[in-house]
Amino acid sequence: MSDSYIQVPPNSTGEKLQSYKNTVGANSVHAEAMVIASTLGVPIPDNEWDEIQLGYTGLNLTTVTFKKATATIVTLTLAYTGNRLDSVVKS
Length: 91
Hints:
By secondary structure, the protein is an all-beta fold. It folds into two domains: 1-33, no CATH class; 45-91, no CATH class. Helix content is 0%, strand content 60%. The protein contains no helices and seven strands. The chain has strands at 2-7, 16-24, 27-32, 51-57, 60-68, 71-81, 84-90.
């Protein structure tokens, strides 16, 4: 696993997101690194949840669900154009 980055819009000249590059079979796959924060940008302590569920469509991470016991605390939905991450929406 190597430290890497993914560049996001506009036209792949925008901000860079930290990722970790892994080899899965014959594919190079980026695992995103993120800090969970409130809408004010304040990091949420990891004792607020005890489980994180990841959902994929193909090789793309499309949902990240944070749970405490069996209750959903927050879900992040990631949207792509092709393999390019375009947005992350919290619900």
